[in-house]
Structures are given as C-alpha cells and as structure tokens.
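User: I'm curious what two different proteins look like when written out as structure tokens. Can you demonstrate?

Assistant: Sure. I'll show them one after the other, since each token string lines up with its own sequence. Here's the first protein:
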Amino acid sequence: MLHTTLSSMKGMNSQIKDIRVVVLKTVAQLLIIGGPWVLGFFIHNKFLELAFHILSSQQGSFIFLIHCVLNAEVRQQFTAICRG
C-alpha cells in the first residue's frame, strides 16, 4: 500500500514539474514577443529604436532556443542522431 501511495506521489511531482516548465516557457515567450513591442511603444531616441529592431528581429531565434535547445527531449534525440 505504501508503494502505491509513493508511486502516485511521484507521478504528481512529475505533473507539477511539467506544469512549472510550461508556465516558465509561457512567461518567457510572452516576454520575448511582448517586450520589444512595449519598448517600441516608448521609442523617443535612437538607442531605444535600435534595441527595438534588434529584439524584434531575434524573436524567432529566442523562441527556437526556448522550445528546442532548452528541451531535454530534443537534445536527447539530437545526440542519438549524431551518434548514429
């Protein structure tokens, strides 16, 4: 009985960890997409304009990093493919 209780608790910890990862990715993506536009709204000098253009042009790269490079499952598959 103790074994089944501990097994179900281990599953709950896994779900909580998955939920935390999804929330973290959602917040990061919100900042990546929304941040430059908030910055762009307040453009009053050349530095802010340059920062807006750089951040806006790199949004795809940042999203790739979050969803592919930082994903453990993708890294495992990539290393498996590289090893042959």
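Here's a second, unrelated protein for contrast:
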Amino acid sequence: MSLKPVQARTAGRCHLLPLLLLHLVPAVLLLLLSSSASASASTVVTHLPGFDGPLPFYLETGYVSVEEDTGTELFYYFVESERSVSTDPLILWLTGGPRCTVFSGLAFEVGPVKFVLAPYSGGLPQLVYNPLSWTKMASILFLDSPVGSGFSYARDPKAYDVGDYSSSLQVQTFLNKWFIDHPQYLSNPFYLGGDSYAGMVIPLIAQYISEGIEKRQQPLINLKGYLVGNPKTDPKFDINFRIPSAHGFGIISDQIYEDAMKSCKGDYVNPTNQLCAGVLRKIENLISEIADAHILYKKCVVAVPKPFDDASRRKFLMEESIKINAAPGRPSLDCFTYGYYLAYFWMNDNLTRNSLGVKEGTTSEWIRCIKGLPYTFDMPSSIPYHLNLTTRGYRVLVYSGDHDLEVPLLGTQAWIRSLNFPIVDDWRAWHLDGQAAGFTIAYANNLTFATIKGGGHTAPEYQPEECFAMAQRWLNNEPL
C-alpha cells in the first residue's frame, strides 16, 4: 500500500515552551537557546509527590530526541508490567486531542495511579495506587505526542507545526530510538493503544512500523497489533452517525430526525442547502445541552486553563519558574472533570517536575489539552490502514463506550462493516461477574469489535473493571 510521501524528521533538544511560541521575539528566543544538553535523558522514579511511600511499580520517565535540527523531544512515562516483565506485552499508549497529554491515560484510564478526589484548597493533590491498572498484564510506554503535548517540546517554534503524517513519523523515530536504548523489550509482543484522536493515527504508525519490519530495519519491533477505543476514523462515519445516534439516545425528536434525513439526504458533514444547515444547527444546539463524551453524566466545567492574550503570553513564556497564570475553571467535586482540575495543580508543582525529571525551561505551564498550536489534519481517513494491517494478519481490537456521542459506536460499526470481512463469531454479549459487560463480534483477519456497557468516550475512565477484563482477555488471546 502506498503512503503519502512525507519528509521525515530527526531530533535534538533545548529550552522552550509549547504555547504559541511564534509570539516569542528573537531576543528572547536566543536567550532560551543559550543552554544545551544531551539529546536524550531518562529518570527512574521511585517516589511521587502526594503518593504515600515508594511506588509499588517500576516507573521510568525521559525524553527522546526525534528531530535534531529543530530540537524536538518527546517525553515518555514507562511502567513495567507487574506480572511478567520478560514475556508480557509492551503497549505504546497515546492520547487524543490531538495534543492532550498522555498523563490522562496514565492517571485516568489505564495507568497505575489515580487522584484522590478531595476538595482542593491549595497544596499538593494526593495520589493512590490503581488496582485496575493495565500494567497488571502489560508494560506500558505512555508517550506525549504530538510535540507540544504534556512535557514534549521543541527548540524551534516552527517545529510545533505538525500533522497526522509528520507526527506519526516522529513516533516511529521515537520507538526506534527507545528500543535501541531498551533492547531487553524487543522480544516482547508489541501493541499500540489509545482512544479518541489517537485512534486516527495509531493505524498509520502501525503501518510505518510494519513497513520497517518488512524491510528488516533495525531495531526489529515485534509488532502484533493494536487496540483503539472510540477511535476517530473517517468523518463520513464519525460525524454522520452522530445524528442517528442522537435520535436513538432521545436527544432529538422523530420530527427533527426526519427533517434532517429529508433535507440532508444522509450527508451531515457537508450541508448543501439552507434547510439542511438549519436543522443541523438545531440538532447541535440540542446536543450542547448534554455532555457528549458521556450522555448520562453531568455537563461540567471542562478543567482547562482560560485563554490569555498575547501580551500576557509573552510575559508568561519568559518566566523561569513555574507560574500558574491561567488556572482552570473549577468544576464541582461530583463532576467527572474534577480529577483533571487536580492534575493541573499537581503537574505544575516543582516537586512533581523534579521527581519526573522534567527539564527546566522546556515547559512552563503544564496543560492537559493544549489549544492554539498549529496541527494539520492531513489524513482524511484511517480506514485504508485498518484494511491493510488486518489483511496482513495483525490483531486489532476496536472498542466503543456505548454512551459516547463524540465518536458514536454506530459509526464505528459502520466503517468496520465497510471492510467486508466475514464474521467468525457473531454478535453476542460478553460477560463480567455473570453480567453482560457489553457486546462483541469477531471478524476474519483477527479483527474484534466490542462495546463497553455504560462507557463513554474514553471507556476505561468510565468503566475500568469492564475495560480491564476486556484488555486482559484480548491480550491473552482469549475470546471476550
């Protein structure tokens, strides 16, 4: 399968910040570039601020240089499997957005720590061990990608202008360099995993790795497949199926749905007439009344910092110490987003930065999902990559929280069906503790689709027990 030609990038490092860096004046830029350091660095973390006692798992953090001429470095958290390090799978975990930090995956989805949800009154939020961490069954390499996410940074402001293809190539470069530094994991079964927009680029990254394997490029990664949750895939499926899903969830009426079908003729992505555009506005207004990431949850303040103007941004970027200049809106304690609020203060504490080995001067304000940096959505659809990889025999698990309206399961089912694979295990319930935990269907070419009953857009956040059981069975090559 031919891929869109892209100019590959390599690696380097220095001081800078992922926040619309193009606003930096040259003099400030030169000041920030005055120091230099090695192209890669790692830290073994034995204690974390706010966590009682030594960590009961192996945690390593670090940077890998992926583009030398622009000084682009990607930050990672590596947690070894708590079961069998030598034989358990290794998963590269990415988070969506694009440009949400992978710390969301580590602390809110599949990683070994979680926040104590207590009212915040200053100081350091507390962490506890997560007994449903997927590190019970696999080693996980959490990666802040694309550059600008979390603690990943670049020396050259222009380096933040990436897209689907260029950022995926940087992930491939990251993996090659990481495995050279960690050859003891090369024999472990390797998988890619992630939710939301990560599901768009994961098949592309897997494609790049697969081509490297075919060319016998070193290091030879033991790629076995990938798993994606509520994955962005193709707007004609992801967006078009929001309308029938909203109708099925009872958010829009029969009449509004019928008007949409009649006026838009099945195309809700590109309205071609005023009647269609009007009914779509009406539908979006109705959807805005609920939390579309999980329609049953409260609609809460999203815990992201408030935007600030160019003048305050320039001043902020020049600060050497960490200043919380744009504190996020505070959700109520019973809101799903309260953990995100706590994470903001925990990550912006110098004790946390020091323990994680974050390089001074590279990221001033940690933001869970950063907005305002350029990103090119240059891959219109990931379906060709899904088709190519499954045809080559790689294992794939696609799962959907069934209460998500951002990437509804109806659209995910539809693009999977468009592959025209024969069914090898027809639609049935899968169970946990004697109860249906969701429904599943298995196709030829090692493709499995599963729903998570009660799950939202990032299913492991909402239904951790069910997702733990699903992942464990699938990674163990057992039927769900």
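A detail about the second structure: The chain has a mean pLDDT of 88.
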